[in-house]
Amino acid sequence: MPNFSGIWNLKEQVQAIAAGRWTGITTIELYAWGRNVAGNLGDGTTANRSSPVQITNTATWDKLSAGVFHNLATQNNGSLWGWGSGGSGRLGNNNTTNQSSPVQIGADTDWADVSAGDNHSLAVKGAGALYAWGYNGNGKLGDNTTVAKSSPVQIGALTNWTQVSAGWDFSAAIKDDGTLWTWGRNIGGELGDGTSVSKSSPIQVGALTNWSTVSAFSNASVAVKTDGTLWAWGFTNSGQLGDGNNAPASSPVQIGALTTWSKAVMGEGLCGAIKTDGTLWSWGGNFNGELGHNNTIYRSSPVQVGSLTTWSNLGVGGRLMVAIKTDGTLWAWGRNNYGGVGDGSVTDRSSPVQVGGLTGWAQLDVGRHSTLAIVQGSTN
Q1: Hey, which residues does 180 pair with through a beta bridge?
Q2: Which of 52, 171, 173, 278 could form a disulfide with 31 if both were Cys (CB 3.0 to 4.6 A apart)?
Q3: Is 0.90 surpassed by the pTM of this model?
Q4: Is residue 10 part of a domain?
Q5: How far from 58 is each of 95, 99, 187, 312, 364, CA to CA, in Å?
Q6: Tell me: the pLDDT tens digits for 160-214?
Q7: Is the pLDDT confidence value at 151 over 70?
């Protein structure tokens, strides 16, 4: 039984309610903001939003994933939903039509993890099977072809996949044995296998079995091991690998020597991470102040954002960072030309600014153009 204290993830909330151990949740509301060119905000329009707009008001949303022009989410009942651009079949609903509000993908109710990339999507079912759909250039779906798919297709027959992350033209995943796997484009070392050869089916990265989480974006990845060490690989033009230089890496390189990293997220030319002590760190490109250091100086190794020790969750996207504090408040900074910061303006921010006044933010994900977040309402 989960420890029902602090800020719970949504599955723990549902378990708590079912067990009668907590009844304070009244709503779990899904919000989105930023650029909306293909209906990717899901509010039924194609209008940009410079502050969070509510998409639904139901206690059902679980996992969120924001891509480039499409977004995906699962619900607590295991159903899978998508919205935004339908090009190349990336929404998985067997057509290529844009959708400006969430539509269910198939009828299955056992989806456990999901990730939206540029124009392809990845997902894992509760039993551990791996699925992909959308554009298949460079074999990034992993089905050993380069043919686009407009509905989910299983990748191989294994059922031990636990986490997926879609970059723009490649894919990454972790199995339940702690091994790390990648596939797709590899011209910049994106696959981390020490080569520059693209792969159309999953290949193991090294032989280690202690990978915990992986985050892929554009053409680079960052990962945390079970020992709390931090690693990155792929292409770099802004120092986003965090290893102190600006050279690409075709296999994972360790970022510093610390063993206190708990979460790391790759973005477009930048990266962010949270340590076990609640401090927030960033590095890479800083053209729009997206590193949050109150300047536009690029960093090729991690630099702390302020001095607070109350950061609990982080999303990184297209020159933008969004984070949640332990008090449930939401903060953002970086590029804001389409309202991506969410503070009601289109002015870039080089240090964290609070998004609205709500204090129940529980989960988020940042894509290239839009942000998704869940706020939980409570009677307590």
Answers
A1: 174
A2: 52
A3: yes
A4: no
A5: 27, 20, 43, 24, 16
A6: 999 999 999 999 999 999 999 999 999 999 999 999 999 999 999 999 999 999 9
A7: yes
The 10s digit of each residue's pLDDT in 244-283 is 999 999 999 999 999 999 999 999 999 999 999 999 999 9
| Cα distance between residue 263 and residue 281, in whole Å | 10
- Among 325, 279, 266, 324, smallest CA distance to 306 is for 279
Structure tokens at 202: 């999953």
Which range of residues forms the domain containing residue 304? 25-378
Is residue 291 in some structural domain?
yes
**181 bridge partner residues:** 173, 204
Token pair belonging to 283: 């590095």
Contacts 24+ apart (CB under 8 A), 79-82: 79/104, 79/108, 79/109, 79/111, 80/104, 80/105, 80/106, 80/108, 80/111, 80/114, 80/123, 81/105, 82/116, 82/121
**364 within some domain:** yes
Percent of the chain at pLDDT exceeding 90: 88
Residue 216 three-state SS: strand
Residue 324 inside a domain? The answer is yes
CB atoms within 10 A of CB 22: 16
3-state SS of the chain: helix, strand, coil percent to 5? 5, 45, 50
pLDDT digits (tens, 9 = 90+) for 125-139: 999 999 999 999 999
- Nearest partner of 36 among 61, 70, 74, 65, judged by Cα: 70
Residue range 140-155: mean pLDDT, rounded? 98
The tokens for 321 are 């960072």
**CB contact set of 357 (below 8 Å; sequence gap of 6+):** none
Give the model's pLDDT for residue 29.
Answer: 87
CATH code, domain with 349: 2.130.10.30
